[in-house]
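Subgroup meeting minutes
Present: P.N., E.W., G.H.
Scribe: E.W.

1. P.N. recapped why we're keeping a running log of single-chain structure predictions: easier to compare across weeks, and new members can see raw inputs and outputs side by side.
2. G.H. added today's entry (384 aa).
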Amino acid sequence: MTQSPTALPLDPAARRTALVEALGVLGSGPEERFDRITRMTQEAFGVPLTFLNLVHDDVVTTQSTYGWQQGTSVPASEQFCATTVLTPEPMVIPDTMLDPRFATTPAVAVHGIRFYAGAPLTMLDGTRVGTLCVMDAQPRAFGVEDVALLRDLARWAERELGHAIDRRRVRRVLDGLAPAPVDVPGYGVVTATVQPDGGGGDVVDVRTAADRALHLTVGTVAAGRASALLAATVRGAVAARTDVPLDRAVAGLEAQLTPDLSRAGAVATLVHARLDPRSGRVDVVDLGHGLAAVVRADGAVEELRMPGLPVGLQLAATARTSQEVRLASGDALVLCSDGAPALPGVDGLVHLARTAATGEDALRSLLAAARPSLAAAVTTVRRD
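Output recorded in log:
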């Protein structure tokens, strides 16, 4: 069992760098699986220069190339690809001298590049890590069919990059960006998780806002192999709205996440709670989850259930409703992921909540018995 730290909101640049490092291909030297792609791209378009580039740490590294030196790195500010990676769609520049963004860059002014077309390379969680691009010393026309072919070749490159991901390394890299656990005077906050070796889709975020309110989110992303990475994306989106009023935060969260989840054929079930430590008031919003409960000091359990579909399925026009509860001395709020009620020896949410509320030792015993393939997370907040 591990104490779950709060997670930093990962901005796109930091997330891109983390994933490029996790791919484990930087500095690996020539690889036929990548060189085949750049070679066939050159043949398809008849251009002198083709690149498979990775964008990280404000530099662009050539992972594979036809017509240039492999393994070179240049500042991102000097490269077309640093702009391409910011958009989900290919970028085409028929004549770079006519584009004020690039006309004075070294690529144009020094190396004489007059034509560029590049497609972003996107990982399963939606993070764009690089580009597949073609260049020429002469201006060129690049039609709709050309763009479609370049996009298809980029999908091939994405699959090859995806095969290189070591899930445990991705998890270590992303989780390493998180600070220490929170400390809330007057309350005991315990978060425990178990994950399979390949990573799971549980979302756990615990943090304090500027007004000292405690924000807690627990849930699960179901997306097959992409679950772990999408879970980190969801967690970052939650963290970015810590200081936003609850209703606006939930609406913004759904608006941001639904397109990404839909593209991946994924859904996320979440429960989000905001605790005012001074009054003990807790506002809870259920996003298709239903795995939250309050355990009173006398052992009575109140399940917190609200109607609604998971994120990715809920109609955009349908507002989420919140539920208010109060924690008195000795009361505990328990939030858990989808896998927690399936822990050995657990007989449903009420039993799980009552056991988890008795303390960390009891929670440790529950999770220690988890099957190797099971992902589970439980967060408890007990008022002194």
